[in-house]
Specification:
This protein is mainly alpha-helical. Strands 1-2 form a two-stranded antiparallel ribbon. The chain is globular and about 65 Å long.
């Protein structure tokens, strides 16, 4: 009986259940390196649980690691730092069809930080992820921070827009058209994935004389992870988003989410949904970039603005950046584009 109550034994026999329990507990936020953003309160003063989209992302990450250990007969409680490095390297170099190389980016570092919190929770000492974190930071490009930034050319952007999910007719395909609009917003406004799925109707302005649509980003729509800032949806993406906004009105979707997860308007789509559709769109378009997601589209927005004469300060404002050094990665990407000099 004592063995059944041993937390370590529960992590051994039902790791995913224990992980989700940890994920939904206050201890998960306390174990993070970053200060948690202020969270909305329920009527009785308690914190709302972690966002559903965040639960899905973390659970997916942990699930991939669990599957890797199980495939190799490695106990979760006996994982070493070398095992973790092997997992990261194997994921990074995966050649399987349809396998997302999600560890080519800063998600590699997020994996280590997540596992560091897990092993601290279990009480494994020494913590295998702590040593691995040092190795990752010492390896050029391993954390994703030193990897080159990529932006789409005009031809590639045109191919991306032409490869958006099909515009099917009929009430039952409304999510497909919503997905088209989310990807168009991602490509045309320089927003992060979290900012797109958290947009409210009041964040969308009226089309201006240039054909662009003003967009305002509020911390309230991203659980405090974004600074308040203003950007705009570039004209090439307006038609797709406009079509969705009209359909949204015709569907009489309540609440204020621009891109709701259901017809009641009460939930947002998950980040994983948008990542998946972005990757598939890149693949349909035949665009040969390593990062097939929101990062590349955000880079592309910044590069277009810099190339068209926008100041670095203006572009920082559009992206919601606070530190001047943050704009450097976008300038580096822009310098790879023919005709740009700054």
């Amino acid at each position: 009986m004592a063995e059944l109550l041993d937390p370590r034994e529960l992590w051994r026999t039902q790791p995913m259940e224990e992980f989700k329990t940890f994920l939904m507990s206050p201890d998960f936020f306390k174990s993070g390196r970053r200060r948690p953003s202020p969270r909305k309160k329920t009527d009785d003063g308690k914190d709302y649980p972690i966002r559903k989209s965040s639960v899905e992302v973390y659970a997916s990450m942990f699930g991939k690691f669990l599957q890797w250990t199980q495939d190799r007969g490695i106990s979760l409680l006996e994982v070493t730092g070398q095992d973790l490095l092997a997992f990261l390297d194997e994921r990074m170099n995966s050649k399987k069809r349809g396998s997302a190389k999600d560890l080519n980016s800063t998600i590699r570092t997020r994996y280590i930080r997540l596992l560091e919190r897990v092993y601290a929770r279990i009480g494994v000492s020494p913590n295998p992820a702590r040593h691995t974190a040092l190795e990752v930071q010492r390896t050029p490009g391993a954390s994703g921070k030193d990897l080159p930034s990529v932006a789409l050319t005009d031809a590639q952007l045109e191919a991306f827009m032409a490869s958006l999910p099909g515009d099917r007719y009929g009430h039952t395909h409304w999510k497909r058209r919503r997905d088209r609009a989310m990807l168009a917003m991602l490509a045309g406004a320089g927003l992060t994935v979290g900012e797109v799925i958290g947009l409210y109707m009041e964040n969308i302005g009226e089309k201006d004389a240039t054909g662009a649509i003003p967009i305002s980003v509020s911390p309230a729509s991203t659980d405090g992870t974004s600074m308040p800032h203003k950007t705009f949806l570039q004209p090439f993406a307006v038609e797709v988003v406009d079509a969705w906004l009209k359909e949204r009105e015709e569907l009489k979707i309540p609440k204020n989410l621009v891109f709701p997860g259901d017809l009641k308007g009460e939930t947002s789509p998950s980040k994983a949904t948008l990542y998946r559709h972005a990757q598939k769109t890149f693949e349909r378009a035949g665009i040969p970039v390593a990062r097939k997601g929101g990062r590349t589209l955000r880079n592309s927005f910044a590069v277009r603005e810099l190339r068209n004469g926008a100041s670095e300060k203006d572009v920082m404002g559009y992206l919601g950046l606070q530190e001047e050094k943050s704009i450097e990665i976008y300038i580096a990407a822009a310098k790879k584009v023919s005709g740009f000099s700054r």
